[in-house]
Amino acid sequence: MSRRRGFTLVELLVVIGIIAVLIAILLPALTRAQEQAKTAQCLSNLRQCGQAIAMYAQANNNYLLPAFIGNSGSGGPGIEHYATMLVGLKYAAAPTQPDEKEVTSVGESMFRCPSGLDIKHVVGMVGSPTGLGWPTTQQDSRGAMFWRRESTTGTDVWLGSGVMVDTWYGCNGNDPGAGNGAPGNFVAAQKMFPFRKLRRNPDGSHLGELTKFNQFRKSSELALLYDGLRMHDCEGFRINARHNKKKDTNFLFADGHAETIETKRTPQFTGTAGQQAQKWKGTNGFTLAEFAPWPHPKWRLDQ
């Protein structure tokens, strides 16, 4: 009667070693494949945003929709942003968030970057009860958080749809804020960039000027949306490196196409965010050397 021979300890260790080597070889490839899939999904989302923006423009005399609409005091959470307008006007679909104070997000949408963080960015300085502070580098995780705004209802209202939408994509524009002095300064501070902020006046009129697509010189090179936080506000730290081990950023361009660009090819600031954002050039508004001229992507309308 023959006896069945089992594995020796040495043979078992050899098999385990081979499996470990295979895992070590295949795991990086799997990780790269997962990252490439996220990058591709993000680019697809941005293209869908571009299609919705184009439909809005076709229905509104070729105007680019506002990035943000502030209330009459131009402070606080405001009354709309580009995502609430696209959803409220039925050009896009996104889950309405159930609670403004909830710090996480519900559901998937074309405004969601799969490489972003499921954390709501709260305005305020570090150390305040709720403030998270602004990103200080393009690799800062705060730049991967989402921006939540609600289409308000009541007296201070624009669309009044009541939808509350989260977006992980920043707008190529400068928000002059609440304390920008004369109305002319509010307009001038934004004129170099495609996206604009509007301010609703107490009488129901608005302050601010929108751009038209026919004002864009090189639509295939002009950035509209990108992986980033809110509007860049002349602070390059809000342009976020999310892909390929925090080396790349995805962009939507004014002609509707999306592409991946090395983050180091975007404006690289030398001062603090606050120092950069306070540079003025007479009545021409914010004109930062880091934003113009810029070979690709282009940021300013005069390029």
Relevant terms:
alpha+beta, 4 helices, 303 residues, 23% helix, elongated, 4-stranded antiparallel beta sheet, 10 strands, 4-stranded mixed beta sheet
How would you describe the oligomerization state of the chains in this entry? single chain
Number of domains: 1
Describe the main β-sheet briefly: 4 strands, mixed
The structure class reads: alpha+beta
- Give the count of helical stretches: 4
Rounded to the nearest angstrom, the radius of gyration is: 23 Å
The fraction of residues in strands falls at: 5-15%
Q: State the order of secondary-structure elements, H for helix, E for strand.
A: HEEHEEEHEEEEEH
Uncertain segments: 276-287
- How many β-strand runs? 10
The CA-CA distance between the termini, in Å, is 89 Å
Strand order of the largest sheet: 2-1-6-7
Average predicted confidence as pLDDT: 84
Share in helix: 10-25%
The coarse silhouette is elongated
Helices and strands in order:
Layout: H1 9-59, E1 68-70, E2 80-81, H2 82-88, E3 147-150, E4 164-167, E5 169-171, H3 183-188, E6 197-200, E7 206-207, E8 223-227, E9 248-253, E10 258-262, H4 273-277
What do you see in this structure?
The protein has 303 residues and is of the alpha+beta class. It has one domain (35-284). The protein contains four helices and ten strands; from the N terminus they run αββαβββαβββββα. The strands form three sheets. A four-stranded mixed beta sheet has the order 2-1-6-7. The chain has a four-stranded antiparallel beta sheet with strand order 5-8-9-10. A two-stranded antiparallel ribbon has the order 3-4. A hairpin with a 4-residue loop joins strand 9 and strand 10. The longest helix is centred in the N-terminal third of the chain and has 51 residues, at 9-59. The chain is elongated and about 90 Å long. 41% of the residues are buried. Mean pLDDT is 84; it is low at 276-287.
